[in-house]
């Protein structure tokens, strides 16, 4: 027997149903906000992620499935969606030929992390990118939209946190101050953070080991007046949108390209893998990747984690409404025809194997979760009728004329 790889899963109902429901909720909300779907490749040039996500991030340093293909090209299986969308935006000249710069994607991402509850090596993200709008209206709209999607998917009890990382100027100054601080406290840092002091000191604040302690002790980032104003206005607009949020000065996120607003939605019920969605502004990324000067903002939501949150809610049932049984050889064709008629009437119907015994078919009917079994035998065929057997309550089986069957069943469902 061959097993699936660690961190890679098969999804069956009810989980697959939950995933579909979350995707449907997202698509519905995206349409209301003027977003169009983009489908990007699963495999991209390796350097795309090195240059955008950042070569000192965990994702690129440790977690990427990268390999050299048959043509000798260095490629990577996407660990996140933003780099691919930005590449497409530039490559296809969407700043000129596109509409409003609003794109969403739904797709699987791959990261070689240590698998645990809520953390897998293949997982699904729903993501949104809004490219070309530098104003706080875009920030507030995109966060409000994320919250709407979570609500529509049935998630309750989430909290949104926001922060500002400032612009390249604010961060340039802060980088110097922070790396000075980290150097004088290097003994207390974990090995990877010590290495990053010069290259990327901000990453220490996002470190799962050093981050929480540094949050209280390290010097905080000071925003320049323009960035402070952007952050204030974003908060006002979020309040206007009715979004429940709090400012978390220690929120830095693990990717290199963020500027100004960053945010995360968390759910306490998820335990240590509590991040449901995260995102932020990336005003310099499109330009730094060779595109136009197009400030942007986006987020990604973890569908696997949302599915865990709504697992216990109703509606994930994939049972058919009706189970059709043939009780004798001469009724099989009519039973098969009946299945088609039921489905044409919009009723979900299933069967097992008309050639098996009545007892065996009844067992399958019970296991199917259907509400009603319809049984056709020689007598029913002769009288143009059908036996109706409720499966979930103790009500008696009765015989209904074929002509009345569908309205009669509807009453039972
Ligand atoms: P974490 O801090 O939990 O590692 P992250 O900051 O790496 O999250 P992002 O890159 O911002 O996550 O991805 C957005 C969302 O995708 C996360 O909030 C989470 O819900 C989901 N996600 C990220 N990595 C995984 C994974 N390995 N398995 C399942 N979901 C994931
Ligand atoms: Mg991570």
Describe the structure.
The chain is of the alpha+beta class. The protein folds into 2 domains: 15-166 and 223-310, BirA Bifunctional Protein, domain 2, CATH 3.30.930.10; 322-412, 3-Layer(aba) Sandwich (Rossmann fold). Helices cover 40% and strands 21% of the residues. It contains 17 helices and 16 strands. The protein has helices at 15-32, 46-54, 58-63, 82-91, 94-97, 136-152, 168-184, 191-196, 203-206, 211-217, 225-240, 285-288, 303-310, 332-344, 358-368, 378-383, 405-412, and strands at 36-37, 43-45, 65-68, 74-77, 102-110, 122-131, 159-164, 245-247, 259-266, 275-281, 296-302, 322-326, 349-350, 372-376, 385-390, 398-401. It has an 8-stranded mixed beta sheet with strand order 1-5-6-11-10-9-7-8. A hairpin with a 5-residue loop joins strand 3 (65-68) and strand 4 (74-77). Helix 1 (15-32) packs across helix 13 and helix 2 packs across helix 4 (82-91). The protein starts with 14 loop residues before the first helix and ends with a helix. The structure holds adenosine-5'-triphosphate (ATP) and magnesium ion. Adenosine-5'-triphosphate is lined by residues 80, 111, 113, 119-120, 123, 125, 254, 273, 275-278, 300, 302, 304-305.
């Amino acid at each position: 027997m061959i097993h699936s790889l660690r961190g890679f899963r098969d999804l069956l109902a009810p989980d697959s149903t939950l995933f579909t429901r979350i995707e449907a909720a997202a698509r519905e909300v995206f349409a209301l906000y003027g977003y169009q779907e983009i489908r990007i490749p699963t495999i991209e040039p390796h350097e795309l992620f090195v240059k955008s996500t950042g070569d000192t991030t965990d994702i690129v340093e440790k977690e990427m499935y990268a390999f050299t293909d048959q043509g000798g090209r260095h490629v990577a299986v996407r660990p996140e969606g933003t780099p691919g969308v930005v590449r497409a935006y530039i490559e296809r000249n969407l700043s000129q030929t596109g509409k409003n710069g609003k794109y969403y994607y739904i797709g699987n991402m791959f990261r070689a992390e240590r698998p645990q509850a809520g953390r897998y090596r293949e997982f699904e993200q729903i993501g949104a990118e809004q490219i070309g709008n530098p104003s706080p209206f875009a920030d507030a709209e995109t966060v409000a939209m994320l919250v709407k999607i979570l609500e529509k998917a049935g998630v309750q009890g989430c909290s949104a946190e926001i922060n500002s990382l400032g612009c390249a100027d604010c961060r340039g100054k802060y980088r110097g101050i922070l790396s000075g601080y980290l150097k004088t406290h290097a003994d207390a840092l974990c090995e990877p953070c010590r290495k990053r002091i010069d290259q990327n000191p901000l990453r220490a604040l996002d470190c799962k080991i050093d981050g929480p302690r540094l949050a209280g002790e390290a010097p905080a980032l000071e925003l320049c007046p323009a960035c402070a104003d952007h952050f204030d206005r974003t908060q006002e607009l979020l309040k206007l949108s009715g979004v429940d949020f709090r400012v978390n000065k220690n929120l830095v996120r693990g990717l290199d390209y963020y500027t100004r607003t960053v945010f995360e939605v968390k759910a306490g019920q998820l335990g240590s893998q509590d991040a449901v969605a995260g995102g932020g502004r990336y005003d310099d990324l499109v330009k730094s990747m060779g595109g136009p000067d197009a400030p942007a903002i986006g987020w990604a939501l973890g569908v696997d984690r949302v599915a865990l949150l709504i697992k216990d809610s109703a509606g994930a049932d994939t049972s058919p409404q009706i189970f059709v049984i043939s009780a004798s050889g001469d009724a099989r064709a009519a039973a098969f025809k009946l299945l088609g008629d039921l489905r044409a009437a919009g009723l979900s119907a299933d069967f097992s194997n008309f050639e098996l015994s009545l007892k065996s078919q009844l067992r399958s009917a019970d296991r199917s979760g259907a509400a009603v079994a319809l049984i056709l035998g020689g007598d029913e065929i002769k009288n143009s009728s059908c036996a109706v057997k409720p499966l979930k309550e103790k009500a008696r089986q009765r015989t209904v004329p074929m002509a009345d069957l569908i309205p009669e069943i509807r009453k039972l469902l």
